[in-house]
Write a structure and sequence with these properties.
alpha/beta, TIM Barrel
Length: 358
């Protein structure tokens, strides 16, 4: 991939991405405890847009106060958040990047000390001390996801991504291990996926055909079955209501954990689907210029970059200038990360990653 070639990508909704690099949505704990935007979060994200990411995605942004998943999380559950989001969306778009916010609810994974109460989930979960939602609360959750997307559109974002991955609340609905409901939202895969499709179809209806809409899914962990996740992907493709699928693989180069699906790599299970008008991005250990090209050559439309986007705010520019670009080896110093736009809070959070911060 070179800077001179036309690496742009146009989505079904008409939004145009100038290159094939997306900043992955990453927990960074940098905003204010009431969910409003901080200068640190603004700096971190706009620096990536300036560094050449064709699509800059925010961290997970919770759609209900009770859905908060980590300290310093950027919220979008109230109109009080709009002012900060207007600033952030405009700051990202100034650099020619698409501005996309990830809509999130942690469900049973909301820490009790952070939400000052009992977390909620699809069903009662003793392990997490979570209680199951009533039907009225499920309807309210759907409404709050859609309202958050409307707020995002009012704030000037190009689009939203619905977070259906990593064991958060929409995964909890999808998972046959976690979902023990006996109503229309439990039992069959169609019922367990009902809320996800009601949310995405509701966002499309409320925000119109020109609003960029994506969904993040993960095919492993938290009771997710590869076959079921592929079935959900196929339904999204067939119905054509969303613009892209973001599949979080943890490692794009590994084999599936399920023994009866090891006839091909985890990535190949998804690239073998006919995506029609839906674009595909994947995340998981795409660290170097070589990795980027390998994933793009595997019929993935654009790459989702996490770790290397932390190490290099201008990772896309570096790779387009040098296809063999290798990121700085870790561990790196705190000063190094400060120079790359990470606040003290984010650096402290990164110390949870093994051998990342010296």
């Amino acid at each position: 991939m070179s800077e001179k070639a036309d690496n742009s990508l146009t989505f079904s909704c008409g939004a145009k991405m100038p290159n094939r690099f997306m900043l992955a949505p990453m927990t960074n704990c940098q905003s204010h405890e009431d969910g409003t935007l901080s200068d640190d979060e603004f700096q971190w994200l706009t620096m990536r847009a300036k560094g050449g990411f064709g699509l800059t995605m925010t961290c997970a942004s919770h759609v209900q106060a009770i859905g908060k998943g980590f300290p310093g999380q950027l919220g979008i559950f109230s109109d009080k958040h709009i002012e900060g989001h207007k600033r952030l969306a405009a700051g990202i778009k100034t650099h020619g990047s698409l501005a996309v916010i990830q809509l999130h609810h942690a469900g049973m994974r909301s820490p009790q000390d952070i939400i000052n109460g009992q977390p909620v989930s699809v069903s009662d979960m003793k392990k997490y001390n979570a209680r199951g939602l009533s039907i009225a609360e499920v309807q309210q959750l759907k409404t709050d996801f859609i309202d958050a997307a409307i707020r995002a559109q009012q704030s000037g974002y190009d689009g939203v991504e619905v977070h259906g991955a990593h064991g958060y609340i929409l995964t909890q609905f999808l998972s046959s291990d976690i979902n023990s409901r006996s109503d229309n939202y439990g039992g069959s895969l169609k019922n367990r996926a009902r809320l996800l499709f009601e949310i995405t179809n509701g966002i499309r209806q409320a925000c119109g055909p020109k609003f960029l809409l994506g969904v993040r899914l993960s095919p492993e962990r938290f009771g997710m079955q590869l076959k079921e996740v592929k079935t959900i992907c196929q339904r999204f493709i067939d119905e054509g209501q969303i613009d892209f699928l973001d599949i979080s693989l943890w490692d794009c180069f590994k084999m599936p954990e399920e023994l009866d699906h090891q006839n091909q790599s985890l990535l190949e299970h998804f690239t073998s689907l006919d995506f029609k008008n839906i674009k595909l991005t994947v995340a998981g250990k795409i660290n170097s210029g070589y990795d980027v090209q390998k994933i793009l050559d595997a019929r993935v439309d654009f790459v989702s970059i996490g770790r290397s986007g932390i190490l290099h705010h201008d990772f896309p520019k570096q790779v387009m200038a040098n296809p063999n670009f290798e990121p700085t080896p870790t561990p790196v110093s705190e000063d190094y990360l400060h120079n790359e736009g990470l606040s003290d809070t984010f650096v402290k959070y990164m110390k949870r990653w093994p051998d990342f911060v010296a």
